[in-house]
């Protein structure tokens, strides 16, 4: 009976209706399906490449690891073959820009494009409300992008497995799982970096309000943060362990080394050659061309210094710190992403349309 | 415009004159190009300037370490070995040139699509292309001027890059020098770096005309550039050439890329000419 009593409508409108979050999923998909499709194509092409290259690498690894006895010439050839497979992917540096590219090309246009073309006037005046509109889109697309990246990084983990498998030490030297090129491609870090790049892009788009400059700003900011994390912050996530002597596990990420004598600091880094020449002249041999070689293997000078009362120390992060580091870095980046999205939404809310 | 005072009011005469177009104000197009793309060009300058400061600072260390190592006497002594090790440990990420490979792609992809895709996307092409200058001349003038500007900046930058990598390439008694034809070094030096930058720019311009949206055009340019660079580096540029072939291979690659760029610009201008406004 109240269908025609118009005056009751404003009273209802004062307390907002439950929000159609589900419809926002559809809107987000419609608006950003090209961007999401582009991410899928890009990662799909990378996945095909990694898969083909990874099969080669795994075959080469299996052949090298199964060879017996391991110091025979045939086995050494197989090890060299494994080491020279897919040199471009080795160390993981070529894959470092992937999160930055995804984040910059998906995140930056989220707001910048609406602001640049003027469609924000339409989008932000919908019943849903402009800040809810922004929040819903950023959360939905952010979750989608992080999910795709997380699934993709499983492939990275598989690809780099041969380099990191335990027991490699006897066959060849393996990199630390914490080393700068590899750490952030595996575990939760890759998805977290992608989400952070996306959130940086969204904020840059809101601040710069033009798509292309926002993409450039995102790439620059991401490069700065990634360099800062890899070169400065990461080694301090947990207190490094200190090892006495030279028998570090091969998978350790060594921060620094120093030597002591009689409980006092002697020198940092590598032993100075003048000292070695004075204390251990027997370790050196003069080659035919006048060059100096080391007699008795690369470890001989160290053994000689130890005999003279020197003690070697190193501080390092062991491979067992991999998962704690992953959770620290992933959690930090998640917190950063939440903060960046919150600032973006706050800016949208505050902005005079 | 000479004689404008006299003919100002004789409107019928103007139509006769318009039949064959007046000499073109190319110089004014330089000003228009600068006004439209000064932010992009400024961005390129800031980006390369920051890279140059980094290269300069690390390069000074590298050259000092190199000079100390090469002056050391007798060459085989442990002290000299220490200096060679020190030289080898300088450079960090810049070693091998890998980290500088994306620079031409980034410049080209972020400047090239702005010329046409941005105008088509925002609709300003309706204004720009109806100027008396004519739409295809407008496009040609902009592409040529911006192309020359970007190429010149990249060429100047690659002189610094050549200086930086000089110690690694000097044939000497210290260690085996890297081949100047190595994948990651060859296209950073000589004329190749500027030619690759020009190619990336023209790929961006054509992608912008075809796709008509800026961001997809940037992505397409990056993908196309990567494909071309991989094909040239891995397949076309014959490996294991002697170092003395450096300049010959440079001119072949530079010439090929210049021809490709001219072709891409021609196709872009033709598409603009043909397109129904």
Mean pLDDT across the residues of chain B is: 83
- The amount of helix of chain B comes to over 70%
The main pleated sheet of chain A reads as: 4 strands, antiparallel
Largest sheet geometry of chain B: none
Summing up helix and strand content along with how strands pair, one would put the structural category of chain B as mainly alpha
**Strand percentage of chain B:** under 5%
Count of extended strands of chain B: 0
Give the distance, in angstroms, between the N- and C-terminal Cα atoms of chain B: 28 Å
> Roughly what is the average pLDDT of chain A, rounded to an integer?
83
Helix content of chain A: 55-70%
Inertia-based shape of chain A: elongated
Over all CA atoms, what is the radius of gyration of chain B? Answer: 24 Å
Any idea what the radius of gyration of chain A is?
28 Å
Give the N-terminus to C-terminus distance of chain A in angstroms. 40 Å
Summarize the topology:
The complex is a heterodimer of chains A (353) and B (277).
Chain A: H1 8-14, H2 21-66, H3 73-83, H4 97-117, H5 120-123, H6 130-164, H7 180-183, H8 189-208, H9 211-233, E1 241-244, E2 253-261, E3 264-268, H10 273-279, E4 284-286, E5 292-294, H11 300-307, E6 310-317, H12 322-350
Antiparallel strand pairs in A: 1-6, 2-3, 2-6, 4-5
Helix pairs in contact in A: 2-3, 2-4, 2-6, 4-6, 4-8, 4-9, 6-8, 6-12, 8-9, 8-12
Chain B: H1 4-7, H2 11-19, H3 26-71, H4 78-89, H5 103-122, H6 125-128, H7 135-169, H8 183-186, H9 192-211, H10 214-236, H11 246-274
